[in-house]
Amino acid sequence: MAILAEPSVATIKRTSMWSSAFQSRHFLGAMFMVPAVTILVLFLAYPLALGFWLGLTDTKIGGAGRFIGMANFVSLAKDSVFWLSVFNTIFYTVTASAVKFAIGLYLALLLNERLPLQSMIRAIVLLPFVVPTVLSAIAFWWIYDSQFSIISWVLVKSGLITRYIEFLGEPWNARWSVVAANVWRGVPFVAITLLAGLQTISPSLYEAANLDGATNWQRFRHITLPMLSPIIAVVMTFSVLMTFTDFQLIYTITRGGPINATHLMATLSFQRAITGGNLGEGAAISNAMIPFLVAAILLSFFGLQRSRWQQGGRD
Amino acid sequence: MSSVQIRDVRKSFGNFEVLHGVSIPIEDGEFVVLVGPSGCGKSTLLRMLAGLENITSGTISIGDRVVNNVQPKERDIAMVFQNYALYPHMTVADNMGFSLKLRGAKAEEISKGVNRAAEILALTPLLDRYPRQLSGGQRQRVAMGRAIVRDPQVFLFDEPLSNLDAKLRVAMRTEIKELHQRLRTTTVYVTHDQIEAMTMADKIVVMHDGIVEQMGSPLDLYDRPENQFVAGFIGSPAMNFLKGNVKVNGSAYFEGPNGVKLPLKSAPANSDGKPAVYGVRPEHFTIADDGAEAEIVVVEPTGSETQVFAKLGGEQVVAVFRERHQFNPGDKVRLKPDPSLVHLFDDATGKRM
């Protein structure tokens, strides 16, 4: 026994450094985290930090900048175009999200009923979400074109109006037009996610409510809405974040025009930084979005905190 | 409280008929159990009674009113669902008071109703909890509480105990029966468990493949099953069936499998040589010298009684003895059915002879 055991003791000694390292939970855990941490640092943390830094400099394309403190923000505070873009962004986010929620919830409730060709209709509802954003934006660009707009054409032909509508020529027309395009694109996400939520609600709850004497409205008010509220919170947080940071639709359809009426903070930042070459100023505009986004996330964080009825266990 | 009349009720899903004309009279205050194997249509019938399924033809009336086209909420019934269907976002008190709240009752009236029901079911300390924080048995009681608060004409129970463990099921069975004795509300209870049916019912309705096989009091069904299905369904362990022929040769007897001779008290008229099924309950065997020879296969003592599986004429039968015999597998014993307690069924139709 003793003779047999000796060589194996020697082997253990040779590999003990590595093997004991791999035995350690902490070391292994750290190793497993390396890939994720690398990706996060390289593509999220570094660009974010760089953006912060750029916002505090006067960097232009082609030249190294120098640190100028809060000067970019001070000049932005006096910049009426910047404030217009803040207004536009809030208007765009609030109206588009509200309409998306209303239509999405309506569609979800409708699709949750038994319909003929149910799965086909569900697939069709998802279509706008599948089309690449830029393609659908180009389609909307044509729909809103001052000479070739199909909407204007139909309305003129049917005798409802006499002149083509200036969809993208008038500030408010343009604002509502891009909101409509964003709603068209965003509704499927809201509708399908809420539908998934609706399907988790047990039908027997509705039957019980029915026997308890609830009307359709009371069933919606007392069963559907409270049961759906956690999912509504998730969906609307996502929807608000995506709408607030929207770039593609606006940049393709209006490029921020007419007279900056549809410039969002994201498109203005791009215009100042890349088109205009003022990287520092553009970064400062981007940084100015952060407080709004943090506010939205905090709001949803508290909204998403599990209500008492969702928590298991005793007390 | 109200009587319920189910008259020639049929139900089809598309072209597929699941209930083929069911008629059940239910008296005021009666506890009726619909029992049958899964797929027999008992739950569908209950849901039709609740108004959750349409009635294809026939009528259902509660009291004097035909309710075929009456909305569930106007039928004045309360139902306890298999999965309880408690509202997860409401406390126990809110769950129980929901129907009163919808009715527009005052807060005072609601809490009075809820407290009364909570007292009956010993739920008072749990009123502020959410369904997630309750055990299975407690949820079951809340579901019943929700029904009691309504003070309805009829209680409906849809397999309410099937999600509970065996011990709790027995306890809740007694509790439900006690509750019915106290409130005397007409109750329709659906289960696939014949023990539940036997122990709780005033009247059992045995259903099979969309028809009523037999209805009657539990002991009626046990003592005089109308057909082979009811005979096999009611009673545990199930009745033994042996195929063979009725013989009237001087005195009447039954010739079982492999010529084994089994006693009959008397033979039905004109039944000499007729193929039939001989039914004997496990508890109606005795050991007697003039019994038929059987070889013991397995012995299962439970303490209060002993179940013995044996080969009788090549067929396996089960016998139950309350007295303690010394049996071993392979032993030859003489099993004698009590001739006054055996049942004869027509081999072709399964009907009682």
Secondary-structure blueprint of this entry?
The complex is a heterodimer of chains A (about 325) and B (about 350).
Chain A: H1 2-23, H2 25-55, H3 71-77, H4 80-112, H5 118-130, H6 133-143, H7 150-157, H8 171-199, H9 203-212, H10 216-244, H11 248-253, H12 265-275, H13 279-304
Chain B: E1 4-13, E2 16-26, E3 31-35, H1 42-50, E4 57-62, E5 65-66, E6 77-80, H2 92-102, H3 107-120, H4 136-150, E7 154-158, H5 166-183, E8 186-191, H6 194-200, E9 203-208, E10 211-216, H7 218-223, H8 228-233, E11 240-249, E12 251-255, E13 261-263, E14 275-280, E15 285-301, E16 306-312, E17 315-321, E18 332-337, E19 343-346
Helix pairs in contact in B: 2-3, 2-4, 3-4
3D structure, described in words:
The complex is a heterodimer of chains A (315) and B (353). Chain A has 315 residues and is mainly alpha-helical. Chain A contains 13 helices and no strands. Chain A is flat. Chain B has 353 residues and is of the alpha+beta class. Chain B is built from eight helices and 19 strands. Chain B has helices at residues 42-50, 92-102, 107-120, 136-150, 166-183, 194-200, 218-223, 228-233; strands at 4-13, 16-26, 31-35, 57-62, 65-66, 77-80, 154-158, 186-191, 203-208, 211-216, 240-249, 251-255, 261-263, 275-280, 285-301, 306-312, 315-321, 332-337, 343-346. In chain B, helix 3 crosses helix 4. The longest helix of chain B has 18 residues, at 166-183. Chain B is elongated, with a radius of gyration of 24 Å. The two termini of chain B are 39 Å apart. The model of chain B has no long low-confidence stretch (mean pLDDT 90). Classes of the chains: A mainly alpha (315), B alpha+beta (353). Chain A binds chain B through residues 202, 204-205, 207-214, 218, 222-223, 226-227, 307-315, and chain B through 50-52, 72-73, 77-79, 81, 83, 85, 87-90, 98-99, 102-103, 130-133, 146, 150.
